[in-house]
Amino acid sequence: MPVDLSEVATEDLMKEISHRLDCLKKPEKRVILIGPPGCGKGTQSPRIKYEHCLCHLATGDMLRAAVAAKTPLGLEAKKAMESGALVSDDIVVGLIEEATQQPECAKGFILDGFPRTVVQAKKLDEMLAKRGQSIDKVLNFMVPDQLLVERVTGRWVHPASGRSYHEKFAPPKVAGVDDLTGEPLIKRKDDNADTLKARLGAFHSQTTPVIEHYAAKVVALKADRPQDEVAASIASAMA
Q1: Would residue 163 show up in a list of annotated catalytic residues for this protein?
Q2: Catalytic site residue 188?
Q3: Where is the Adenylate kinase active site lid domain (predicted)?
């Protein structure tokens, strides 16, 4: 079905065409992002996606989309979730396999939130190996736990849009309200020190072996620096 582009500015169209032509020359890359809550992955992943023409695969979003679309894997996942069981690694790897065959993933992907264990990493490796592929880089976002506690516990969110603020690092113009709508900001239930410390403990115990599994491909990023400095380190690692 034809898409109506009459409302799109010519300058924006030309920019998009130029970007797509540039993407044709880019090498394929398959990248895993590893990092604890509040480490900055969500800030950096759109840059990596755009600059390297990759698709961004967040497994939680993929599961929800598959369930909503009632795909065969989505129905399996829904059955597991409704019974209170964890969604199996095989289902998640199957979703990743399906997603990476889409046109937007032609140049590769960024995986965020998976693998969390060595078993998952091995299943992912096996799936890619069948296609003659492998993970190219693992970007390990390293931030001291104490700073993460400060980052997360000071966070305020506009629930309708997802816009986030920080009482110290990025405060709203008026305390407690969203800059654009003037609506109240909320604190997420999990954005407290006790919950975060428990999550960090689980993160370190689970992901340290994954980092060791991919040791030769891991790039350690000092992610407690300004965003542009972290972005420069990522650009160097991805070159």
Answers
A1: no
A2: yes
A3: 155-190
